[in-house]
Design a protein that fits this description.
With about 220 residues, the protein is an alpha/beta fold. About 35% of the residues lie in helices and about 20% in strands. The protein has eight helices and seven strands. Strands 3-2-1-4-5-7-6 form a seven-stranded mixed beta sheet, with helices on both faces. Helix 2 (about 20-30) crosses helix 3. The chain starts with 9 loop residues before the first helix and ends in a 5-residue tail after the last strand.
């Protein structure tokens, strides 16, 4: 799969988050051949949209979606995706050094004990495994100060203030090789004028997504 042959069904392309899912997969392909690995975890999988997209293009991957909100796991299971969706309480039961790859989309800022999370993922990754995650909700993003109160009032999770330096240092200290870049957006961004929305202005959406959304690539070195 590449950008030119990304023949995704319309029902997935219509998801407002498709721009970010699409971009993350394209970027991950530059470092790892997804056809040569077996086990993938999407941490904080939400309603399963990203897992569904990944499963569509790579049906032989053994994908586990991890989610804290039980109602979202029910939604995931109702979609009958070829994946295994687990409550976070069962996360510890996953065998150590069993996963080739982790993904997470805008989850890092919702985690209170980021050091613990980084350590958990490190244990479950195989040597040479990657953790790809995006973060646009961080204190270095000038739109964050306006967005954070709306997120905390409308969502069922907390929003914590991390800088890009905070994130990189925590993961580096655990033992990862840390790499980072701005996430290139390969598909138009969807903006809504609904009453409850994260961005009040389309300019903020573009600024946040194009200039301040970062992709971290954490590698568990083979000699770790």
């Amino acid at each position: 799969m590449n950008e030119e042959t990304f023949d995704t069904p319309r029902y997935l392309k219509n998801n407002p988050n498709f721009s970010f899912w699409h971009s993350m997969i394209l970027e991950s392909q530059k470092l790892i051949d997804l056809n040569t690995i077996e086990n993938v975890i999407d941490f904080g999988c939400g309603d399963g949209g990203f897992v569904q997209l990944l499963n569509y293009h790579y049906p032989y991957l053994k994908i586990i979606g991890i989610e804290k909100q039980k109602k979202l796991i029910e939604i995931c299971n109702s979609k009958k995706i070829n994946a295994n969706f687990l409550d976070y309480e069962n996360y510890e039961n996953i065998e150590n050094e069993s996963q080739d790859l982790f993904f997470s989309q805008e989850v890092i800022y919702t985690i209170k004990d980021l050091k613990h999370h980084a350590s958990e993922v490190f244990k479950k990754l195989k040597k040479g495994g990657y953790y790809f995650f995006t973060i646009g909700c961080h204190v270095d993003n000038p739109t964050w100060e306006k967005r954070k109160p709306r997120i905390e009032s409308e969502e069922e999770y907390n929003a914590y203030n991390y800088s890009l330096s905070d994130v990189s240092k925590i993961f580096f200290d655990i033992g990862y090789r840390v790499a980072v870049k701005r996430l290139p957006i390969h598909y138009p961004l969807v903006f809504s004028y609904e009453e409850k929305r994260e961005f009040l202005k389309i300019e903020d959406l573009v600024e946040s997504s194009e200039d301040h959304k970062f992709l971290f690539v954490m590698l568990k070195l083979k000699y770790s």
